[in-house]
Each structure stands twice: as C-alpha cells, then as structure tokens.
Amino acid sequence: MTFKPARLPPDLDAFGAIDSHAHLDSETFGDDLEGVLSRAWNAGIRAILAVAASESPDIYARTTALAARNARVFAALGIHPHNASLAEILEPPLLARLEDPKVVALGEIGLDFHYRFSPEEVQKDVMHRQVGLALDKGLPVILHVREAHAQSLAILDSLSARHRGVVHCFTGGPREAEAYLERGLHISIPGVVTFGARAGELAEAVRIIPEDRLLVESDTPFLAPHPFRGRRNEPALVALVVKCVARLRGTQPEVLAGVTAANTLRLFGMDDAC
Question: What is the Rg, in whole angstroms, of the alpha carbon atoms belonging to the chain?
C-alpha cells in the first residue's frame, strides 16, 4: 500500500515520547527513510520500536540491520496474522534473528478476522505457537487483534494467566481494554484517537487505562492522525497522538510523553541510553 507523504509542520513536539510501533521497511519509504528518522528525532521522539511483520522473509534481516545502524531504533519480529499461511516460510528466518541484541519483542502477532487474509484456524494455530515461543524466550508480545477479541483472549488464557506485552493499535472500548489489562498487558494508542467522533469508545478507554500500562504509537506508515488522515504516517506524528491522549486524560503532553516513554522502556527492556 502506498500513501502520499504528509507535509509535517515544523513545530511538532513529542516531548521525548517513544513510538512503540512503527513499520520502517525500506521498501515502504525508499530513499526517504533517513529523512523519516531525522524528522522523528527533530520532533523530539526519543526512540522507535521498528516492527518487522510482512510477507517477505527478508523483513527480519532488514529490520535488525536498521536497528543495528541506529542506537535509538529497536526491533520486534513476528508473523502478522495476515501472513499466517506463510508461517513455514517465515518462521526459519524469524527464529534465526530472535537472539539479536536489539530484538526486544515478538510481534506483531495475533488474529485479524476482519480481512481473513489467512484462514481463521491457521491464524489461531500460528498465534498460539508464537505466544508460546515468546513465553519460552522471555520476550514480551505485541498483539494485533481485529474483530477477534474473544478468540485472542482464549489463546492467551490457554497458555498462561498473565502475559507481558502490549495490545498495539488499540481501538476498542473500556470493556476490551479491561480484559487485556486483567491479563497483565499494556495498551498502545494510535492516531485513530484523533479522529474525533469516529474514534468511538476509544476515548473512553483512554481515560481508564492505568498510567503505568499506557503506550503511544504511530503504526507507521498507516493511520496518520488528524489532520493528516489518509497520508503516509511517520513517527514524528506521534506528537499529535501524545497531545490528544493528554487532553483526554486531563494532563499535559510533556507529562504524558514522559510516562508512556518510561512504560515502553520498562516493558521492552530497552536501553535507557537511547
């Protein structure tokens, strides 16, 4: 999928927030990848968790190489539910990179019953295997869940009563948030929160998530926040997510940025020198 780049305002200030979920595949950004990173640092982004989850077996090597070149970029590797049917092809290169020192999570993994690009039963089997792998390796998970909350919770419960990780790009309401929080998971808020009335119950969920379980993300290159909706997203725009979430929670953006950055560092064991 291609997006027209957004023309970013020069006064973006993320106050040291960490983008906990971005897809920085060079095939998406081409020659502009270094520009994307530069704009993120200039906007006050402290660090970025680059998530490798595509149908290409090369994605894991490319993402870990990117993290190796950039002290403030970390990596997460996983098999996206869209690509669950390709697990036999994707698992060997994934496993080969899990011991990389910059790999801090297994993800994104999970279930997507909206698009069903892979059959439901295949998705469930692959999610079960990957959550089990994360438990064995002591890695936090990054979960993608769309129209499959009950099924995802059942898989989590079948493996452990408590989990370390995050439900990324959360767009549910308070009930769904509480179900994941009860299982020890964090919740990450994307640019959807800026969509006003279309954000639905998400705004209510944002207000009830405990301070120490809250993360923010871009989900680059998807889901650019208002007023850039429909354009190519990039980590610098997390500044607008921080501003909106802070307003909903009745706090200041700089406070919200600091809290969510600390949560991200703690959850993923990221080097505090970033």
Answer: 17
Name, in order, each residue with C-beta under 8 angstroms of 216's C-beta and a sequence gap of 6 or more.
17, 18, 19, 20, 188, 189, 238, 241, 242, 245, 256, 257, 260
CATH superfamily of this structure's domain 18-268: Metal-dependent hydrolases (3.20.20.140)
Question: What residues contact 156, with CB distance under 8 A and at least 6 apart?
Answer: 131, 163, 183
**Considering only CA atoms, which of 179, 117, 175 is closest in space to residue 143?**
179
CA distances from 213 to 38, 188, 206, 232 (A): 28, 8, 11, 28
The residues, ordered by sequence, that sit 6+ positions from 219 with a Cβ below 8 Å of its Cβ are: 21, 22, 23, 168, 169, 190, 191, 233
Closest C-alpha to 73, from 130, 23, 13, 14:
23
Q: How many Cβ atoms from other residues are within 10 Å of residue 99's Cβ?
A: 8
Query: What would the pLDDT profile of 205-242 be if each residue is shown by its tens digit?
Result: 999 999 999 999 999 999 999 999 999 999 999 999 99
Is 167 in contact with 127 (CB distance < 8 Å)? no
- Indicate yes or no: pTM above 0.70: yes
Which DSSP letter does residue 54 get? S
Indicate the pairing of strand 165-167 with strand 103-112: unpaired
